[in-house]
chitinase
Amino acid sequence: MVFTRKLLPLLAVIQIACAGVAQASSYLSVGYFNGGGDVTAGPGGDINKLDVRQITHLNYSFGLIYNDEKDETNGALKDASKLHQIWLSPKVISDLEKIPALRKQNPQLKVLLSVGGWGARGFSGVAATSENRAVFIRSAQDVIAKYGLDGIDLDWEYPVNGAWGLVASMPEDRANLTSLLNELRTALGKQKLLTIAVAANVKGPTEWVDMKAIAPALDYINLMAYDMAYGTQYFNSNLYDSKAWPTVAKADKYSADYVVSNYIAAGMKPAQLNLGIGFYGRVPKRAVEPGIDWDKPDAAKNPVTQPYFGAPEKTVFTSFGLDLSKDTYLKYNDIVSKMLNDPQKRFTEHWDNDAQVPYLTMKSAEGKDLFAISYENPRSVAAKAEYIKAKGLGGAMFWEYGADDNNQLAKELAKDLGIKTEH
């Protein structure tokens, strides 16, 4: 179905009815906030600095799960008497107690606890049996009631796949997730929100999650349409494919539009999907390691691209506190302060008309332009907002609010989606 602007008023009514949103806008802006800390985003941020007038929903991240996985390194999560329940760190508890103060800024704000995140263990065990699911569900109900939350968000990365072996998984995860969500919906009733975050990976809506089966239980689904700068891809969250900086391996050819199309093809209704926007950038992996086309014979022995960063380029990022051998993630506020406002002017800003995102280059010793990092800025956020409207999506989701630069990306998104910012 093709959505035109003439259909948007009708879509607005549908969205408000389905999502229970009292905002003036017909669209959602779901802001994840890394309050409790995350392995990719660093220590938790300051909840007192959030301007929640710019969003409709706040996904506070993260609650974790007591589990018995052998590779769990957080000793607090190994309490066998609380197996399969939700664990909240002291920082998370302190922040959740401040929710009433946040609601004074925005009385219509919906607040959810997000459970999980990259490297979070326990989901496969929780979902495995009806008894385990019941323990988790009671725990979720208790947390919602204790802190006056509007619902719960599950960020399981990832069913069946297990984050490429990082966390426990099994083939039955797909069906077990469906059971968990259906049972959660029954327990929470229609008055509380139940949402999930799902992978950009092409296997997400086909092999890892049964999208048609879980859709009726969910208020909306957050598409993590970012973290694409891996393999032979340059861009982190491009809206469309780039012609100037093309991807070599077909399997790496990702874009936000491609992700959305995959989920719609899997049977999802556009109005139930929120497009993920990353308030950060990534140095492309191909800058520091060989690009592999796994569809080719002897792929590992025959890289299709070679890394192009040398010691000087790596040293620049080391000065920013980034170890490119471990992570390539840089928050938007750091990109602004350290790269766009670099006193040494080592970076040049560009706009890719096809990808609809900005990127920075830096000069090699030979004077060649090297692709340094791609990210989001107000212009690209506005482009994604227009895409959301054109596709009839439910709205936007972003990771994460603490990475914004003086709230400018959140404000741009609120403006473009027509979200009321004064109360």
